[in-house]
Design brief:
This protein has 380 residues and is an alpha/beta fold. It is built from 11 helices and 15 strands. Helix 1 packs across helix 9 and helix 4 runs parallel beside helix 5.
Amino acid sequence: MNDKSWSASRRAPVHNSLETELDYRPSFPEGYRPGIGIVGCGEVVRTAHLPGYRRFGQRVVGVYDVRPEATDGVCEQFGVETVFRELDELLSDPEIEIVDVATHPDVRPALVRQALVAGKHVLAQKPLAADMQTARELVEEGERLGLLLAVNQNGRWAPAWRAATLLIEQGAIGDAVAVTHLYHHNYGFTIGTIFDEIEHLVLYDYSVHWFDITRCWLEGKSVGAVRAFEYRTPNQPPESKAPWGAWAAIEYEDGSNALIRGIGSAETTRPRKLFWIHGSKGTIRGAVLGSGAVPGQEQLELERDGTTTRLQLEGSWHTNGFAGAMGELATAIIEKREPYNSARNNLLSLELTLAACRSAAEDGRPVALEREQALAGGES
């Protein structure tokens, strides 16, 4: 986003102190460094999980991957203590308190169960499951065993999204009534990979972050229906399988609304993810970056009462986001409480995501939410 995108900042005073008042950075409990074991050691683990944990001084006891070559060099590069050759070895290690399940979605639920049965707290990659029944069973299993199960909705701790969440919670824009997302991306990296085999790739595996943060910003409002549509873009390579274009609209019973639009084959060197949050008393607008995030380039503005406050934020989605999700789980363990990103809290986000997938499969038919919203009484 360039300066021309911030037209309001040229019409009103700009202040730079607000970021010092917002505790948007990842935090970990003082004096407690739980041993972490990571299952799966793909590109995201190497570019986000491990760098984030190392930056914030967390202890990674060991990693495991079904492909031994995937773990090459992690000890030397990231200070990982052990490379486990068998999953059971990782799960039985008494030094490991938290298992970070960072695998593809098809095998994720079974691995989460194994870790819970082994007596470990779990941070599961998103989406938690492919269907609501499986997700609920995992939640209930963790609660039955007295263990914490959190979902790695790391976007909640992307600097601009996290700061926006805190502003909304503080009432900075009054009642949030509309959320709009526009993100530029290119899914060329998925061709020939397992990602290209995922049904509803863009809505389910990628946009789940956008569904999740939207429900956080519109917390407590009842969803009326979700509509979504998928399409192949004109410049999408013919050998790609999954549609790269998608949009989703969320309608709330009080008239609030949200729109998520993904440009799936964008040819741009600035693939920022833009967002606007309109409230009854002001507006928040900003940008986060997805893959290839550059520290220090996330942006946020708050406009209210004729004054625009621009925040200069530190960190990036990849480093802050993944560290923040783990830090919240670690803090919840020591404080003996449910984490903000608990699997139970995440059920409504997953239901929104799956409703969008179902709508897209039926050419955009509005889909109403069912059990999770009913259980929550309009809240999560």
